[in-house]
Amino acid sequence: MKTNILTLALSFLSLTAFAQKSEIRDAGDAVEEGNYTQAQQAISKAEPMLSEANDKWSERFYLYKGQAYLGTGENISLENLNTAAQAFQKAADMGVEEAQDGLVAVRNSLVQGAISDQNSQNFSSAAEKLHTSYELSEKRDTIHLYYAANNAVQAGDYDTGLEYLNMLKEEGYDGSGVEYLAVNAETGEEEMMASKEQRDLMIKTGDYSSPSERQIPSKKGDIASLIARIHISEENYDEAIAAMEDAKRENPNDIDLMQAEANMYYNMGEKEKYNEIMEEVVQIAPDNASLYYNLGVNSADLGNKEKAMGYYEKAVELDPDMTDARLNMVALVLSKERDIIEEMNDLGMSEADNKRYEELQKERNEVYEEAVPYLETIIEKDPANLEAIRTAKNIHTQLGNEEKVEEMNTLLETANQ
Length: 417
Hints:
CATH architecture of the largest domain: Alpha Horseshoe
Keywords: Signal, TPR repeat
Helix content: over 70%
Low-confidence stretches: 1-19
Distance between the termini: 98 Å
Number of strands: 3
Signal peptide: 1-19
Number of domains: 3
Largest sheet: 3 strands, antiparallel
Strand order of the largest sheet: 2-1-3
Order of helices and strands: HHHHHHHHEEHEHHHHHHHHHHH
Strand content: 5-15%
InterPro entries: TPR-like_helical_dom_sf, TPR_rpt
Protein name: Tetratricopeptide repeat protein
TPR repeats: 289-322
Number of helices: 20
């Protein structure tokens, strides 16, 4: 009787092993045919019996499982990509060389999915996919953690963003290096790849061409800026300042970092401190027109119009096409009109008042005449600038320049077409 029971048990084990091998084989065939749903179903049937499989069949099982859940790699859910990654990792641990390609493909799918999410402004999903890609990378690819942090901040998930940023800070992440690029054959757009290996793999598929490389500057300034921005938004100013001080100790002459610090103080309302730091920045980068423009904006906010005008003049000297600087110069000139109009409105009807009114009207016209050259330069460089055209039209109307008014009307009609 015992012998019969033993014989039956052995027979059952043989049948189980046979059924399990059959399901694994079916999964592999379905993967080959591109029928990934069928492959997943076969994998699900084989998995409960996996303990009975030998190493050879276990290796096949995990490889096929990874391939089944990865599918084409396009528009795959994060859950399925995680399942695929875990399966490929087990196969890789068992010595299956092909599994390494599977892990690369999973990470590529995660990155491409994150890019798609970013384009559709689904920043939370992009952050999650990039963080998953970071965790899957053997050497922990911190560039993905950096972009995950950026997306988390964009999504308003400051706690997660700060967690990732602090991880980068603790790891001493710098971010400088090489960026690997290739042109998408379908869209014609250049795209960034996660690594040289991934870029080379995508070139081999024929879906990408024209591989290239680009130097990446340090991102410590960006990280400090993001940490500070999070703390500022939550009014944790002490933490924001501390974050900047830490970064500055490592990069005392980093212009991006100095600008981030200046912007932090600007957001805190300490505009004098902003000016102080920005003055240091322009000493380091005296040919940067944007720095002078920003100093002009802040000086105007502080009420120092003469200094603001000097900064704007320097900005357009360095960058003659900087329309915003010229428009702000117009605004500074026209701001003189306010006091003149207030005095004109306060005058009475006496002979002395009428005489003063005529004097003030002449002064106002002089202000208009002073603004006209700036506006003419803007319109010459940007004939479709509606703000400049409308302002010029109003000024010429006040000055009685009918021909100029008609000219501005024509420009308005053209710009609105």
